[in-house]
Amino acid sequence: MHTVWQKNALQWTREPEIYTLSDDEITVQTQPHTDLWQRTYYRFQNDNAPVLQTATDEPYFSFVVKTAFDSRRRFDQCGIAVYLDSENWLKASIEYENERFQHLGSVVTNRGYSDWATTEIPAGVRHMWYRLSRRGHDFKIECSPDGEVFRQMRICHLAAAGGTVSFGVYACSPEDSSFTARFSHARVLPCQWPAHDGQQPD
Length: 202
Fold this sequence. Notes:
The protein is mainly β.
């Protein structure tokens, strides 16, 4: 692997006002009215969430991290991201909705248009592990409640993800809210997403 997950290799895209950064844990206090979203359906564009990333030109790798959070307002979210620029990125997170449920989901943005794929989970869930794997321009996002057994959330393509990419963690509060997001157990591994062994490419 050409990449390590160490604090001296990390860079902010929009540094938050309040955060801590050590070799073991990252905490972020979100600021109100911060988000990542592009155009689709809502027609607005939000590009002001803080993202902490490292960069690699390695075409095959996996990134694992544990998230913990005390979100309390609609759309509060923290998770993982591959942020290339304002119009090309992906994120996966738990977004708070109400006292009954949250959305575990992901957004993929290609050329300035976002999608949103979700499933409802109980509002009481307060931590989640994620595993992001890269195979060239393609990515696999998985989640796990215990960091041992990971389940697929989605497979997607980032058209702009050639060569060097940046990846890491993010947290934001799209409405008038603020909460603390914690990231720990971050590590970069050889790619845990095996090559496809079924139907051959066209």
